Automatic annotation (TrEMBL):
<keyword id="KW-0560">Oxidoreductase</keyword>
<dbReference type="InterPro" id="IPR042098">
    <property type="entry name" value="TauD-like_sf"/>
</dbReference>
<dbReference type="Pfam" id="PF02668">
    <property type="entry name" value="TauD"/>
</dbReference>
<feature type="domain" description="TauD/TfdA-like">
    <location>
        <begin position="70"/>
        <end position="371"/>
    </location>
</feature>
<protein>
    <recommendedName>
        <fullName>TauD/TfdA-like domain-containing protein</fullName>
    </recommendedName>
</protein>
<dbReference type="InterPro" id="IPR003819">
    <property type="entry name" value="TauD/TfdA-like"/>
</dbReference>
<dbReference type="InterPro" id="IPR050411">
    <property type="entry name" value="AlphaKG_dependent_hydroxylases"/>
</dbReference>
<dbReference type="GO" id="GO:0016491">
    <property type="term" value="F:oxidoreductase activity"/>
</dbReference>
Amino acid sequence: MGSVGPVDKGVVSVVDGVTVNFDPIELPGQRIVHGNTFPLVLKMSKPEGEGELSLDEAARALRDLSERGITTELLNKHGAVILRGQPDASPRAMSVLVHAAEEGRGHFPYDQLGLAGSRTVHEKEVFSASEAPPNLWIYQHNEYSRYTKFPSNIHFFCHAAPAKGGESPFAHSAEMYDRVAAELPGFLHDLTEKGLISPDVYRPPGKEAKNFIFTWAGPLAFGRDIQPGDDMATMKRKAEIQAARLTPHFWWRDNDELEVHQHVPAVRRHPATGKPVFFNSLAGRYGTAYDRGATDPPYVGDDGMAFPPATYRDGSTIPKEYLHRTWEISQEIAVLIKTQPGDLALVDNYQVSHGRAPWFEGERKILVSMWDTDKPEEKILDL
């Protein structure tokens, strides 16, 4: 893998005689985490006088950087890289760009399973990021980090940006670990030693909640094999087969609800940096429950949804004050990025959590694509 060199000098790709420059620019709120800019923002452009950058030229340049190891090196160093300057904001553009970037790294699309949310397919490996109402916060979480299976990378693309609000907050999971270690050392010790049980309750088809519209029968949840005309018993049997791919700890509740418990570590180690990362989605889960008034028994929100809290793996309760402060820290360290149409954010899911700020004016459409690796040297490690 070649060296990128000082990032303030930028990166250059030359493919078939076409030069594409990746020059660093500053955005409000960027942070320095362990000596590196977070997130890194690069402006893509062709040299002066050579015309506007096309989608195909941008894709060839991205594939070139990935094949040379530069994309991976930048993500290892900075956690997230936002690419600006490519003018096509269509879902197809995202598909073309992420396939170039990730196939060039030898990665493959992540097979989503157990989604506790709703997503619409827009293009090949391109989905809506969140379909929750625009007035709601989506708080910090590493994608699927409370699950036993999760992607190595998650990428975001701005299809449409609202006039006001709707920022994309990113937080560095190594900085999150450092802050929790400094402020809540006893909590971090217990998390490290005990691990977590992460529970989710999935409603049955036809009984979706008001804000977060999903059921266990969704194709990205546990319903990929469910066919039109299947009766409830058949649907449940098919869902059980899929749930068992994640965990043996699941059961049916009253009214055909499915409760799933996943036993996972709370902290991990990044494979390239060797640094510990806070990888668990505790902050995001608590923040959502807090907004819905569901942080105390019976843990049911004002929208009727169940929000059972995570516990330590031995079943003991996590003190609510620890969860609350963890959520506050995740908000304090988040960098709120006001994305522009055509922006592509390449994100190391192991190192960076993400969220969504509410908006009240205009349209916001952020698309997402998830990828994974089977290279042992690139897989997240236990602490």
